[in-house]
Write a structure and sequence with these properties.
By secondary structure, the protein is α+β, with helices and mostly antiparallel strands. The protein is 68% helix and 8% strand.
Length: 407
């Protein structure tokens, strides 16, 4: 009984996943992916750094005694008991620059989170379409295998009645073996697709995944936008944030040339004399600004220029990748429609009619094998173009929503 309950607990998460619904798989992957969990934590940590970045330093308090004699007696002129406090006053422009840099850092992590989410969604959908195409290929090959079984049976009947040579039976059996070989290869392709998909869902590679069904038509998957990344593309926004952070660091470095003020107040108590107080202001002299400030200014300028160049590089990469996705979508759409409307129906009709003619002796064995090979090849090509058509849209949408490259 305990064993049954244990197996049910293991199977429960798997039963909740509908492998025929790729969007539900995306939801599972986004919820569990460790990279997103890490970035969410980093974004929260970055947000927690904003307030401390602009806060004043804590005040300092002091207490002690001055000029106590070695025998621990008070000197009525010199011994003084003191208390005091000090506070460093940071210039407002420095505090504002630090706050802005912290806010921009949090914004950059959040933009990276959006990019990572788009890339994970893309990876799941691409792996699912590879799996669906492999299952469609296997289904088509198994259907043709049944037809080949009919061919083998027909060849044996003709051989037994003396209307065909034994070589036709052997060649039909060889064709059947070749088809079994193709099925082994297609099952390997399916396992490779699952090896990409299951880790994204945090499922073991030994998970038994039922065959999924690829839509026979994907006409609703279209690309109706240009090969231009949007202005709010998360990856571009992250780099623009890096430029703004470099600007904030530049202002902060330049503000350090104007030192902060440290105020200190003390009160002294003397038992036999009058009490005393002192008020001190300290200001750092930026005498070594050429080695402490100027290098930071130059570093911030170079970081800003590098981030701007990376924005240009990323825009060029995105335009190229989106253009490739559009071209791949157009080609796959044309091929898919031509295969579905013309090539596959014609090949199926030719194979079925040739098989019937061969069974009655009106067609040669070679023509029957040629039509069978053409039908299987064109049907597999159709599902391949069907998957490529959908994957091109997946790649384009991922690039538009935040992905940094095309897979």
């Amino acid at each position: 009984m305990k064993r049954i309950l244990f197996l049910l607990l293991i199977a429960q998460p798997l039963l909740a996943i509908d492998f025929n619904d790729p969007r539900s798989l995306v939801a599972v992957a986004i919820e569990k992916h460790p990279s997103l969990v890490r970035l969410r934590a980093e974004a929260g940590a970055a947000r927690e750094r904003i307030e401390p970045a602009a806060a004043l330093p804590n005040p300092m308090v002091m207490a002690g005694v001055q000029n106590k004699q070695l025998d621990l007696r008070d000197d009525e002129m010199m011994t003084m008991y003191m208390v005091g406090a000090s506070q460093t006053l940071v210039r407002p422009e420095k505090r504002e620059a630090r706050r802005e840099a912290a806010e921009l850092e949090a914004h950059a992590v959040e933009s990276e989170l959006a990019s990572m989410r788009a890339e994970i969604e893309r990876d799941v959908l691409l792996a699912w379409y590879d799996l669906a195409a492999a299952d469609a290929h296997i289904n088509a090959a198994e259907m043709v295998r049944e037809m080949i079984a009919a061919v083998v049976a027909a060849a044996r009947v003709r051989y037994e009645v003396g209307n065909a040579a034994q070589g036709e039976v052997i060649r039909a059996q060889l064709q059947q073996s070749n088809l079994e070989h193709d099925l082994l290869r297609l099952r390997g392709v399916r396992r490779a697709a699952l090896a990409r998909l299951l880790p994204l869902l945090e499922l073991p590679l030994s998970t038994d995944v039922p065959r999924v069904v690829i839509p026979e038509h994907t006409d609703d998957l279209t690309i109706d936008a240009p090969a231009t990344p949007p202005a709010d593309h998360p990856a571009i926004v992250a780099l623009e944030t890096e430029v703004a952070r470099a600007e904030a660091e530049l202002r902060l470095a330049r503000a350090d040339a104007k030192p902060d003020i440290d105020l200190e107040a003390q009160y002294g108590y003397r038992r036999l004399q009058r009490d005393m107080f002192s008020l001190t202001a300290r200001v750092e002299l930026p005498l070594r600004r050429d080695v402490t400030i100027e290098p930071r200014v130059r570093e911030a300028i170079l970081r800003r220029d590098a981030a701007k160049a990376r924005i240009a590089e990323l825009r060029r990469t995105l335009v190229q990748a989106m253009g490739e996705a559009i071209v791949a979508h157009e080609e796959a759409t044309s091929q898919m429609k031509f295969h579905h409307e013309v090539l596959v129906p014609q090949a199926q009709l030719a194979f079925e009619s040739t098989l019937a003619a061969y069974q009655t002796g009106a067609a040669s064995f070679e023509s029957m094998l040629d039509t069978e090979t053409s039908y299987l090849r064109l049907r597999l090509e159709y599902y391949e173009f069907l998957a490529q058509h959908a994957q091109a849209v997946v790649n384009y949408e991922a690039l538009r929503r935040g992905a940094r490259s095309m897979q």
